[in-house]
Design brief:
heterodimer, A: mainly alpha, 2 domains, two-stranded antiparallel ribbon, 7 helices, 53% helix, B: alpha+beta, Alpha-Beta Plaits, two-stranded antiparallel sheet, 32% helix, 14% strand
Amino acid sequence: MSQNNHHDKEEKKMYNKGEVITGLVLFAVIFAFPFWYNMGKAAPVPEPVLTEQAKAAKECIKPKALMKTDHMQILNDWRNSVARDRNRIYVNSSNKEFDMSLSNNCLDCHSNKAEFCDKCHTYASVSPYCWDCHIDKPKEK
Amino acid sequence: MENSRRTFLKIAGISALGLSAKPVLDAFALDIDMLNKKINAAPKNGALTAKRWGMVIDTRKLETEEALKPMIEVCHKIHNVPVHENKRHEIKWIWEEGFKHAFPDLEHEYVNERVEHLPFLVLCNHCKDAPCVRACPTKATFKQADGIVAMDFHRCIGCRFCMAACPYGSRSFNFRDPRPFIAEINKKYPTRMRGVVEKCNFCSERLDEGLQPACVEASNGALVFGDLENPESEVRQLLKTNYTIRRKVALGTGPSVYYIV
């Protein structure tokens, strides 16, 4: 009985309180380093830059919003069509025909790969391997 | 009574499961539709078409190595084929070969002197039953509708099974990044990357533009290109009127390149 009572009344004690708490605080600070270090410095979402030629054309093969979200899927379909079936002409919804060629058609209009493609790809941290084979600047002599 | 209640619960449970499975099945069905969906595409206007493309090489018009050079050069130039100093890294789409190597099964010790020393122009034979197509595990090498044995470099994983399978040595592997070894890049045509196999494509990109293959154009009539399945075609007329040989026929690959000797 008396032993029990003694036990209940005993204050709960933390050993090495100072070190442990300092350690925990330090850990939290270091762990969160990337967050507080970059606070308020978020890179703005880049806007792809259009060339004069692209601006003049007004519309791409599909509406702009769709091109933004679906261009990778479109390019994938194009490559399958050209490489497998050799169907090289794409007909869009307004019956306009396009040569399905990344280097010779897409980049003919969007001849500023660094400003048009790379900017967003870098921001989104994607590295498509198109340019390992496809020539990126067909206009450059 | 108790029994029927139990049965009722069982049926109700299974029905609920069935109902919840429906959306999952629908989702899968949708995916499959997406995969099968073809885009609205068409071949180019004026593209040359055939049931099975083939070539006849008239060696009587190509007696010297010098005569073969322009064809090899133009092909390698327009297709961005790199030139490697190291023979083991060599990439070739079309090249010159001696009789005993090109036709080892026809060679013998008393072979005709002219033929023995004749330089033969060799390239991918675009076989009817191509062993490389069978060997390719990813269908990167495949047969197109016009008989061309084509490569889809996007799919090539560089396993080189096709190189082991091809009895003609028509395939080369990019051991190194080819770009630094291309003297002048043709901007209209892609290069390859390190780790893929490449070979002659019968100039399918030119056929789609309505043009003859580059080597044929540069041959001054020594090379004739046409539809092997069309009896009226020039190649068939040549095959009809001349005796021709093909490379390693006994292997059963059905080469589509014929040689008049």
